[in-house]
Amino acid sequence: MERIILFDGECNFCDASVQFILTRDTKAVFQFASLQSEIGQGLLKKFQVPVDIDSLVLLEGERYYLKSTAALRIAGQLDGLWKLMFGVILVPRPLRDAIYSYFAKNRYRWFGKKEACMLPTVEQRSRFLVDRKE
Fold first, then answer.
1. InterPro entries, alphabetically (predicted)?
2. Contact assessment for residue 12 and residue 115, using Cβ atoms and an 8 Å cutoff
């Protein structure tokens, strides 16, 4: 099953999160694309994700997941004890998402914005979906 993480390419915390996932996803389960990229925007339309989304988005098969559910499903696929984080899914989603939304709302203020996108290593490049210019 294809698993794609759409992330905010301008957010320092989001960039650090992608690096965190890459390090702990040794089976290369996930691929990545920036929400701001053409391919990211195309995937949002294809999966009919709400246009006003301010969240990490996980695309799995034919479904999408947002906010805390996306983060927890990602954690459940990572190496090590991070899999145990998936158990937090038992907390009611409105509570989980309220905490997630508070954090997301303040992420630029707390961690800042990037002036340029990260440059993946040679090994990581194949995991990033990029816009193809014909």
1. DCC1-like, DCC_oxidoreductase
2. no
More confident residue, 54 or 134: 54
Say which amino acid occupies 85.
Answer: M
Give CA 5 to chain center in angstroms.
4
Cα end-to-end distance, the chain, whole Å: 28
**pLDDT for the residue numbered 120:** 62
How far apart are the C-alpha atoms of 26 and 40, rounded to whole Å? Answer: 23
Indicate if the pLDDT at residue 28 is higher than 50. Answer: yes
Residue 62, token pair as written in the block: 């034919």
Concatenate the DSSP letters of all residues of 16-83 into one string: HHHHHHHHH-TT--EEEEETTSHHHHHHHHHTT--TT--S-EEEETTEEEEHHHHHHHHHTTSSGGGG
- 39 Cβ contact list (under 8 Å, min separation 6): 33, 129, 130, 131
Q: How far is the C-alpha of 87 from the C-alpha of 44, rounded, in Å?
A: 27
